[in-house]
Amino acid sequence: MAQHLSILNPENITEHRNNAQDRAHHSAIQIVGESEVSKKQLIMPTTKVYIVYYSLYGHVENMAREIQKGANSVPGVEALLWQVPETLPDRVLEKMKAPEKADDVPEIRPEQLVEADGFIFGFPSRFGVMAAQFKAFFDATYEIWATQALAGKPAGIFWSTGFHGGGQELTALTAITQLAHHGMIFVPLGYTFGNGMFEMEQVKGGSSYGAGTYAADGSREPTELELQQAFHQGKYVAEITRKLKT
């Protein structure tokens, strides 16, 4: 009986009411907070990653598609494939027995680069440097270079060479100069790929600079491990691009 009377005490009733109000206020703040977070997530703009490549025999294209999968696995990221224009005439391509270009990947114009938040550039190696087709594309970016429209945007690179000693690291090192002049932030892989970086039982392209593959005489395709590294690079660069944007 005394316990019931204590509960009915005006002071206890007031205290109970105040506690209830505090709890309700706290719940309201929590709901509003969660609502604001959800709203922020809903209005957060999409992070665009452009995977821009040149591929003569399809090796770099195969890597690019795997990189796209990795980048698109990151929430809030949209990764798009682009090709740079071919500079060789059709008669030369025919003699080289080059296959048709992928018809589902559009050609990119230099001014379209400004639409992206980040990049992953891919190309075959020619005598230790990127293929002339890709260099020609970079040479055509002088107008956006003049305004430094790409400055501060992250960029990774990947490549294909013919054999050991064919430029797996040199091609990467010479390509970085293009990024530097645009003020872009080079995003190397480092050793984030883990044990795959230390593989010694099989031939594997790539390095701490980025993903890579060997084409040999053209018959060798990217291995499962090389494709895994490509997927990892896409995911890794996309994550960094998203962080820098938000």
TrEMBL record:
Task: Name its co-factor(s).
Answer: FMN
Q: Which reaction does it catalyse?
A: a quinone + NADH + H(+) = a quinol + NAD(+); a quinone + NADPH + H(+) = a quinol + NADP(+)
Q: What is its EC number?
A: 1.6.5.2
List GO molecular-function terms, semicolon-separated.
FMN binding; NAD(P)H dehydrogenase (quinone) activity
Domain Flavodoxin-like, residue spans: 49-237
Q: Which GO terms describe its cellular component?
A: membrane
Q: InterPro entries given for it?
A: Flavodoxin/NO_synth, Flavoprotein-like_sf, Flavoprotein_WrbA-like, FMN_Rdtase-like_dom
The record's PROSITE patterns line, in alphabetical order, gives:
FLAVODOXIN_LIKE
Q: Describe the family membership recorded for this protein in Swiss-Prot or TrEMBL.
A: Belongs to the WrbA family.
The identity of this protein, by name, is: NAD(P)H dehydrogenase (quinone)
